[in-house]
Structures are given as C-alpha cells and as structure tokens.
Amino acid sequence: QVQLVESGGGLVQAGGSLRLSCAASGNILTNNGMGWYRQAPGKQRELVAQESNESNTNYADSVKGRFTISRDVGKNTVYLQMNGVKPEDTAVYYCWADLVGWKDHEITRNIYWGQGTQVTVSS
What we know:
Largest sheet: 7 strands, mixed
Oligomer: single chain
Low-confidence stretches: none
Number of helices: 0
Number of strands: 11
Order of helices and strands: EEEEEEEEEEE
Radius of gyration: 14 Å
Structural class: mainly beta
C-alpha cells in the first residue's frame, strides 16, 4: 500500500522560511509527478506547486518567486522550500503524488494524498 508522509510544518514569522518534505513509500513502479496543495480555514483546497513528467513545473501565482518545489524521483520525495512567507500562506499543506504501482495484485496508476501538515505564519 502506498503512503505519503509529510514533515516540516510549523510556526514561522512573516518573512521567514520553512521547508516541507513528503516521502512516498510502498510498491511504486513509476513516479509521474508530485506536488503540494493547501487549504486555509473556510477556503477551498488550492494548488501551490507541482512537478510532473508531462507538464513540468507549475506554481500558483501567489507563491511564484517565493516558493520552490523540487522532486527526487529516485527517492519518491518532494520538497517545498518556502521563503518570504506571509500570513496568508497559513494553511494545511497536503502532499500529492501521481504514481504507478502494485495495488490489489494489479499495476495501477493512482493519485495519493498525504495527511496534511499545518503551516502557520505569524505577523
């Protein structure tokens, strides 16, 4: 069974930096892409950044120039370096992965989500 485990969230002052990590484990054959979404209280989940084999790298306009995503395909791990954070970046950050692997004795392609990690930016 594939699992995503996130780490690196916490409390940071505005203007500071934080680095999130997410590692996928299990019977993984192909890593098609990984990324980060976030959900603030009372708001819908939104894309922050993603890196895929098909569409390369995408960022939300609100984080361009401040956040950097990187993916280690060999380790099935994705990172989000967050610099110059703002109070509006406060949210639960969810890791996302598009993986091909063994599931119920079959090779299938699925989207997986992490459990979420809280990022709080104080002003």
